[in-house]
Design brief:
By secondary structure, this protein is of the alpha/beta class. It is 32% helix and 21% strand. The structure holds 5'-O-[(S)-ethoxy(hydroxy)phosphoryl]adenosine (WTA). This is Acetate--CoA ligase.
Length: 660
C-alpha cells in the first residue's frame, strides 16, 4: 500500500507498535473476561458446548451434545427441538422487550424504518401465514433474491418459523446465477423486490429476477415481490403467480402461526458459495448448532448485549449478514442496524453519520471498506462523534497492519478493541479471533482459535509447522456451527473438505478450509489467503472456474484463464487472460463484450479489472495452465521457476501486455 493521508496521520508510536492490550474500560464490562474459558472448553469438550446451546430456548431438551458416530457427518444437540424464529423474535416479546428496536433500517436517501420486536413478531407471523397459503410446506426451499430491505430478514424468519429452509441469493448476482441456484436447490418459491437504490439511481431488480425465473427448469409455484421503489418503479406488471408483498400482508393482518418444532439437525438454510469447480456449493446449515454457535460468538466475540445498537455493514446476501446481522444479534435481542446504500453516497462520511445518528456500540465491517476509508482520509470520520463505539470488528480477508491501525485510531479512538475474525460460509460463525476482553491484539494476525476450536497450521503431510512457517489451516475437531453437508451431495462434501488431512480408516476427520496460514509462538494465526482457485474480491468469494466459463461463453473466445492480482482497495482483483478464436481481434469492443459476459453470468463484482489478450497461455508440459505464473505477472512480481513450461517464450509477451 502506498502512503496516503490516513497513514500520514498515524503517529510513529502506532506504526511501531505490534501488540495492543484490550482497553481496561472495555475489559471491565466484557461479556467474557475470564481466560479460564479456554481451559474449560479443553477439559470439558464437547460438553462445554452446552454453554452455547443454553443460550437458546429449546422446545425439548437434547440428551446428547455431539454425535460423532458417523464422521464427518457430525450431529449436534441432535434430539433437541427448537424454532429459530421463536428464538430470534417471540422470546424477546415474551420477556418484556417487545418495545425494543429489533431492526433499525436506513434507506440510501435517509428514509428510516424501525421495527420493534413486537413489529417484527407481527410481520414475521403475517408473512409466515402468507407463505403457507401460497403452498409452502415444511422443508420446501424458498429462494430470497433481495437487496438490503427489512423484508429480507422478515422473510428469512418467516421461513424459519414454518420450517422452510431459505436460500438467499445476493441481489448483486445476475439472473443466470439466480437460475443456477434455484435449479440446484429445486426451489419452487421466490421472494424478490421491484428494485432498490444505488448511488442515487433506482435499479430494476425485478427484470433480473424475471429473467432468472425464465432459466428455472422446474415449475415455480409462486413469487412474492416487495414494492421498494414506489413511484420510481419500472412499471412491471405482476404476472399470474406473482404476488405483491403488501397485499399479501394485508390479507393476513393479525394472523399468527405457531413456530414449527424443528429438530436441531433440520436444515435452517442453504447458502451457495464458490469453490474450485464451476458449480456453486450449496452449504447446508442446521437449526440447533448454527443458531447456538452464532448466538454464542455474537455474545463472546462481538460482546453484544440486548441494550446495544449493533451494525454489521455486510450484505445479508452473504454468510456474514446471515450470522451477524440476522441470527446472532436477533437471537440475543439486540438492535441490529441495516443500511441499504453504499458508504460513499451521498458523501464519504455516510457510515460515520449513521454511527453517530444511531449511537452504534459495536461495528463490524470488511478490510476492503477500511482500506477505502483510509484512502479517502480521516477528515470524513472526524466530522462525526463516534464516541458511542465500544468494539470494532473485521471479517472476510486478511487485514494489513496499517489498515488495522488506521481503524483503531481513526474510528475507535484507541479505546475500542478490534476483533479480526477468520471464518467461512462453511463454518457458520467465527473460528479464529481474539476474545476482546481477554487477549492481546496483534495487528495482521487474527489471533488464537476460539475456545473449543481446534484450528492448527500444518504442512502438506499434516504435521504441525513450527512457529513462523507457512502452512495450511486445518480444524481437527467438529464444532456446532459447521456445515453438515453440501446440499444433496454428500460425496462432494467429503471430497471438498475432508479429503486432504483425514484418515478415514482410523475414523479421524480433519476439516480443510483451503486457506494458507502461519502461526506464531503465542499460537496466534495469521491467514495468508486461499490456496484453491478462489479469488477474494472485496471479501467476496469468486470461483475462477465460474468466471472462466462466463468468458468462454462470449462469442469469439477460445480459452480463458482467470487469476487474482493484488489490489489496493479490493484486496484482489480479477485478471483475465484470454485467447481468441481465429478471425477475432482483441479490440475494445471485444474487451467490453467479455466484461459484460461476466456481468451477465455472475454479476458486477466479478467483472475483470484487466483483460489481457494473448495468443497462448503459459502451460506445463502436461498441458496445465500455470496459474502461479499468471498471478506473478499480474502483480508485476519477479517470476518463479519457468523451466517446466512448454512455451516459455510467451511469458515475456504477456508481461509486456499487462504492464501496458
Ligand atoms: C477469507 C466470509 C483473513 C478466507 C465470512 C476464507 C479471511 C474466506 C478472514 C471465506 C480473516 C475470512 N482474515 N481471511 N479475518 N475472514 N477470510 O465464505 O480466505 O465468504 O476462507 O466467508 O474468506 O469467505 P466466505
Amino acid at each position: 500500500m502506498t502512503d496516503n493521508d490516513g497513514e500520514a496521520d498515524l503517529e510513529a508510536r502506532l506504526v511501531e507498535q505490534e501488540r495492543f492490550e484490550p482497553p481496561a474500560g472495555f475489559v471491565e464490562q466484557a461479556n467474557v473476561a475470564d481466560e479460564s474459558i479456554y481451559e474449560e472448553f479443553e477439559e470439558n469438550w464437547p460438553h462445554a458446548w452446552t454453554r452455547a446451546a443454553d443460550m437458546l430456548d429449546w422446545d425439548s431438551e437434547y440428551s446428547q451434545v455431539l454425535d460423532d458416530s458417523e464422521g464427518p457427518f457430525y450431529e449436534w444437540f441432535a434430539d433437541g427441538t427448537l424454532n429459530a424464529s421463536y428464538n430470534c423474535v417471540d422470546r424477546h416479546v415474551e420477556n418484556g422487550d417487545k418495545n425494543r428496536a429489533a431492526i433499525q433500517w436506513e434507506g440510501e436517501y435517509g428514509e428510516t424504518r424501525t421495527y420493534t420486536y413486537q413489529d417484527l413478531y407481527r410481520e414475521v407471523n403475517e408473512f409466515a401465514a402468507a407463505l403457507r397459503d401460497l403452498g409452502v410446506e415444511e422443508d420446501d426451499v424458498v429462494t430470497l433474491y433481495m437487496p438490503m430491505v427489512p423484508e429480507l430478514p422478515i422473510a428469512m424468519l418467516a421461513c424459519a418459523r414454518i420450517g422452510a429452509p431459505h436460500s438467499v441469493v445476493f441481489a448483486g448476482f445476475s439472473a443466470d446465477a439466480l437460475a443456477t441456484r434455484m435449479n440446484a436447490a429445486d426451489s419452487r418459491y421466490l421472494i424478490t423486490c421491484d428494485g432498490y437504490y444505488r448511488r442515487g439511481d433506482p435499479l430494476d431488480h425485478l427484470q433480473k429476477a424475471n429473467d432468472g425465473l425464465g432459466g428455472v427448469d422446474h415449475g415455480v409455484d409462486a413469487t412474492v415481490v416487495v414494492d421498494r421503489l414506489g413511484e420510481d418503479g419500472f412499471g412491471h406488471d405482476l404476472k399470474g403467480n406473482q404476488h405483491d408483498w403488501d397485499a399479501l400482508l394485508a390479507e393476513h393482518t393479525g394472523a399468527r402461526v405457531d413456530p414449527v418444532e424443528r429438530s436441531a439437525e433440520d436444515m435452517l438454510f442453504l447458502m451457495y458459495t464458490s469453490g474450485t469447480t464451476g458449480q456453486p456449493k450449496g452449504v447446508k446449515h442446521t437449526t440447533g448448532g448454527y443458531l447456538a454457535y452464532t448466538t454464542w460468538t455474537s455474545h463472546a466475540v462481538l460482546d453484544l448485549e440486548p441494550e446495544d445498537t449493533y451494525w454489521c455493514s455486510a450484505d445479508i446476501g452473504w454468510i456474514t449478514g446471515h450470522s451477524y446481522i440476522v441470527y446472532g444479534p436477533l437471537s440475543l435481542g439486540t438492535t441490529t442496524v441495516m443500511y441499504e446504500g453504499t458508504p460513499d453516497f451521498p458523501e464519504r462520511d455516510r457510515l460515520w453519520e449513521l454511527v453517530e445518528k444511531y449511537a452504534v456500540d459495536v461495528f463490524y465491517t470488511a478490510p476492503t471498506a477500511i482500506r477505502a476509508f483510509m484512502k479517502w482520509g480521516s477528515e470524513f470520520p472526524e466530522r462525526h462523534d463516534l464516541s458511542s463505539l465500544r468494539l470494532l470488528g473485521t471479517v472476510g480477508e486478511p487485514i494489513n497492519p496499517r489498515a488495522w491501525k488506521w481503524y483503531y485510531k481513526h474510528i475507535g479512538d484507541e479505546a475500542c478493541p478490534i476483533v479480526d475474525t477468520w471464518w467461512q460460509t462453511e463454518t457458520g460463525g467465527m473460528m479464529v479471533t481474539t476474545l476482546p476482553g481477554i487477549n492481546t491484539m496483534k495487528p495482521g494476525s487474527a489471533g488464537p482459535p476460539l475456545p473449543g476450536i481446534d484450528a492448527r497450521v500444518v504442512d502438506a503431510s499434516g504435521e504441525e509447522v513450527d512457529a513462523g512457517r507457512a502452512g495450511y489451516l486445518t480444524v481437527d475437531r467438529p464444532w456446532p456451527g459447521m456445515l453438515r453437508t453440501l446440499y444433496q451431495n454428500d460425496e462432494r462434501f467429503v471430497n471438498e473438505y475432508w479429503q486432504e488431512y483425514s484418515d478415514p480408516d482410523a475414523d479421524e476427520w480433519v476439516y480443510f478450509p483451503e486457506d494458507g496460514a502461519k502461526i506464531d509462538e503465542d499460537g496466534y494465526i495469521t491467514i495468508l489467503g486461499r490456496v484453491d482457485d478462489v479469488i477474494n474480491v472485496s471479501g467476496h468469494r469468486l470461483g475462477t472456474m465460474e468466471i472462466e466459463s462466463a468468458i468462454v461463453g462470449v462469442e469469439g473466445v477460445a480459452e480463458a484463464a482467470v487469476v487474482g492480482g493484488d489490489h489496493e482497495v479490493t484486496g484482489e482483483a480479477v485478471y483475465a487472460y484470454v485467447i481468441l478464436e481465429d478471425g477475432y481481434e482483441g479490440t475494445d469492443e471485444m474487451q467490453d463484450a467479455i466484461i459484460e459476459g461476466v456481468n451477465e453470468a455472475i454479476g458486477p463484482i466479478a467483472k475483470p479489472e484487466k483483460v489481457i489478450f494473448t495468443p497462448e497461455l503459459p502451460k506445463t508440459r502436461s498441458g496445465k495452465i500455470m496459474r502461479r505464473l499468471l498471478e506473478e505477472i499480474a502483480n508485476g512480481e519477479e517470476l518463479g521457476d519457468t523451466t517446466t513450461l512448454r512455451n516459455p517464450e510467451i511469458v515475456e509477451d504477456i508481461q509486456v501486455k499487462v504492464s501496458d
